């Protein structure tokens, strides 16, 4: 019996949880190195208006490591398949999807396979390709990535300690500690495998196939994703797309600038009654 059968399906395997009693479903999908707890600042407010689904991606330290198959998860299609199967198991017929970082493109891929399932996509700090290419600026040279992979392989704890503040980017010790703890809990081999999958990915060809309305949210300065990528995605996406640049820095605004992000989400989500920003303290 395989690990999925033993655990009774993806709902259990990926630790899926549902919060709130709204009539509309909102799915939150985290990025590389984090897990579903990364949404803890936003979740209490969003659960007031939606039925919110959170879960862990297959590489997460919260997921049984036997579930992660490096060959299977060498591309985003398998993550998108997990997402679709999970929503089917939860009997979700229509959803708004918010994906951070790699999960932005996972959502795009899923929406090309089952467009009827997605009312809209919110792409937070997403990128279809991290490597620079001809007439495309992804933010990384191949030598940059080779250095990252080498450092991860040689001394994973030290790499985590050095990488976490670079990803958070702003001076926020709480956020750095949270991300460093989450990333550091990953098994080094799984972390390296997943990093290769993310940083070497190229899903630019998927963008024109996405017909679902998209809201692209991007920090004005992100060490992982140049601001220009947000506008590239807007031009290439097949359906209606809009860009909102957050007046903040770093790759994790949901940890470091969540009141600002929530204010943007109020306009991107079909919330009938506005959330008072005054009730949110950073």
UniProtKB/TrEMBL annotation:
Gene3D superfamilies: alpha/beta hydrolase. Keywords: Hydrolase. InterPro entries: AB_hydrolase_1, AB_hydrolase_fold. GO terms for molecular function: hydrolase activity. Residues 25-256 form the AB hydrolase-1 domain. Belongs to the AB hydrolase superfamily. This is AB hydrolase-1 domain-containing protein. It comes from Liquidambar formosana (Formosan gum).
